[in-house]
Design a protein that fits this description.
alpha+beta, 4 strands, about 45% strand, flat
Length: about 80
């Protein structure tokens, strides 16, 4: 029996290094707040962790600020 439901939000491959990145919304059927699961695959190794909405927002703001300084804001990943 499934203990969670997931919904894929985005999936892409990083151009430098070839890591596969997937972001999923996770809802546990027992209840609680939804979480953001980040799954990074690098060859055979996986890194998977889940964060709350406030942590996701902070991380997103930091990444956006960095990308703006690099002149990459608004460009789509290829």
């Amino acid at each position: 029996m499934d203990k969670e439901s997931t919904r894929s939000l985005d999936k892409f491959v990083c151009p430098f290094g070839g890591q596969e990145v997937e972001l999923l919304e996770v809802r546990y059927l027992a209840g609680g707040m939804p979480l953001l699961r980040l799954r990074i695959r690098e060859r055979k190794r996986f890194t998977i962790f889940e964060i709350d909405a406030a942590s996701a927002a902070r991380w997103a703001q930091s990444m956006l600020a960095w990308s703006e300084v690099q002149g990459m804001a608004g460009e789509s990943p290829q």
